[in-house]
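Response to reviewer comment R2.3. The reviewers asked that we include at least one raw input/output pair. We reproduce the pair for Heavy metal binding domain-containing protein here without editing.
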Amino acid sequence: MKRSIILFAFAALTFGVSACNNSSKTATKETAKPKGKYYCTMHPEITSDKPGTCSKCGMDLVERDMTGK
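Raw output as returned:
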């Protein structure tokens, strides 16, 4: 019985810590500003100030929505 309580407490603590760490990572990503006006939909890290193609996959770069939602 005592062992079960200790295991449950450890699992709850682990889950609580991991939940806190994940939420702070997503908040950082949401506040990051986009670099270029055009980007690849498959590789968002590939950006450009003018239309063109992705250097990784060759897809056309699409215009980023800059309305500031």
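Strands lie at 38-39, 47-48, 62-63. The mean pLDDT is 79. Further pairs are available on request from the corresponding author.
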